[in-house]
Amino acid sequence: MKAMKASKLLILTINVLFFSPFIYGQNQEQQPQKTPIEVASEQAERLQKELNLKDYQLFLVDSVLQRNFTDLMNEIESMKVAGIQTRESYKSVQDKWTAKTDLAFERIFDKEQFIKYLKMGGKYKAYKKNSEKEKQQ
Questions:
Q1: Strand segments (E) across the chain
Q2: Maximal CA-CA distance, the chain
Q3: 119, 128 in Cβ contact below 8 A?
Q4: Any idea what DSSP says for residue 137?
Q5: 1-10, 35-44, 49-58: which range is least confident on average?
Q6: pTM over cut 0.90
């Protein structure tokens, strides 16, 4: 049950971080938006608790998240400046960076941790299906 809550919180945090400026506009009464670095640190701490990460894993996870969140925000900002407004475009960019993060985490986590991470995000079935396809080829 904790894993599902953490997973939902992770997804919600990412969505709020990346899509709130587009949904709510430039409302000046809103609290200041967290930086990608702050969000990355919070997510890394949550993953450390949920997956029992070792110190070196926490460092690597935090580094990956900081880099990927920052690069994602830069790409989204470039899209805004270019006038791109379709939700699908933003979703595809988010999916690209999520895939890069997952790939990095697969290298950082041990097998058990990575499976738990995938289950937290509801991605394990797709991963298992892809793994079975690769084995058949």
A1: none
A2: 56
A3: no
A4: -
A5: 1-10
A6: no
